[in-house]
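Shape matters. As here.
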Amino acid sequence: MRLAVIPARGGSKRIARKNIKSFAGKPIIAWSIEAALKSQCFDHVIVSTDDHEIAEVARHCGATVPFIRPDTLADDHTATIPVVRHAVEWFTTEVVEPVEVCCIYATAPFVQPEDLQKGLELLAAAPDCNYAFSVTSYPFPIQRAIRITDGERVEMFNPEHFNTRSQDLEEAWHDAGQFYWGWARAWVAGEPVFSPKSVPLRLPRQRVQDIDTLEDWSRAEWLFKAMQGLP
């Protein structure tokens, strides 16, 4: 059985009611739910939330909310893996044991059904791995990154690369923050996602945007509307 878990707690701090805030005309969580349903990868698409309003919105968008997440898994310090583990264990006890489980973030409007399908294919083709997830490349060499010091001065993280040409530096990648396919056993065991036992799905940078601040939100919505041809 294949399960999609969309974590969506109610207590977001930096952007109030972030998971159901309107994004390009819909609650932002709707875009993740729709992508999951359109992918036809899943037997169940569920939202794990501690918030009854989010639960109502999620059901209206086509997901199921089979339980209300306990408060112990809904504070600012709760990581993703324990939330998914809870959902897997609940399903194993109450419905049927999942085999493949995909965590899709509620604030990932750029996620595409085709990417979810490709992620599943990557996981299936690598049974010795734990996860497959989306990544994208940094737009600037991380080896030439600088920090601003307490004295308002500048220094390089890696000064040995001051004279290294950009084209001679290794390309670096980061988590796209959209979805994580994994074997249920890996989620339950708490296996780390960022490890040699994960497979990357490369996405173009224009389809990736973290949404952690209001500035991020505005940029993401502008980019999304431009890509979708929306007013």
